[in-house]
Amino acid sequence: MDGKVAVVTGASRGIGAATAEALAECGCDLVVAARSAGGLEEVASKIEAATGRRVETVAADLSDLGSFELLVGRTGEVFGRLDVLVNNVGGSFPRPFLDTSARFMERAFRWNVVTAFEATRLAVPLLLDSGGGSVVNVSSSVGHLADRGYVGYGTAKAALDHMTELLAADLAPRIRVNAVAPGSIETDALAAVLDEDMRRTMTKMTPLRRLGRVEDVAAAVVYLASPAGSYLTGKVLQVDGGLRIPNLPLGLPDL
Asked: Which of the following is catalytic: 150, 153, 223, 231?
């Protein structure tokens, strides 16, 4: 992927940071975006020192859809091209059904679906000018598995999965659109709720008997974004250790 340019959102830590690093190792220059300017600078410095690739940072609140105009515009100004867009920003906390409001559902949909749509919509002209390219959305195993407490997050990620298929149809043949659906990945967000008892339970419920690493997801993104995945579009690659049921039960009681 030497000479290619990639944009990664939500790249100040976790899956986004690992994905940016993996793309740089494959030869990409980068634009990384997130709210945390300090986190982005730390990621950029690490990547530049390790790979010699150029990394541009855009510190912005990506819940504001106007920030994507800045992000895509900066990419065009600095690099003059775009080849890979990784829509990683997103997420939502689980909560009991009766505590889930319509406003919460709307926020979950906006943060996980509308942000990816807007980033892609704005990036398409630049991707086409560069000869085509690849979009990779970061979804979740909860988009196709079911358990109590995940109606907001799971519904939004299921919508993101189907939007991936629809965008693939809209943008073929010049732009490929795929997604990765991680299972339980050891990130700061998971660490905030993870104790040893929970870790044992989650590990036991995972067929591969371990939690995922951010590098596992980053490798899948690179595969989908690179020439190695050139015959894939509209696919959701499940990077979840073989899960068939959620491995983070919340223990919510019957109503």
From this structure: 153
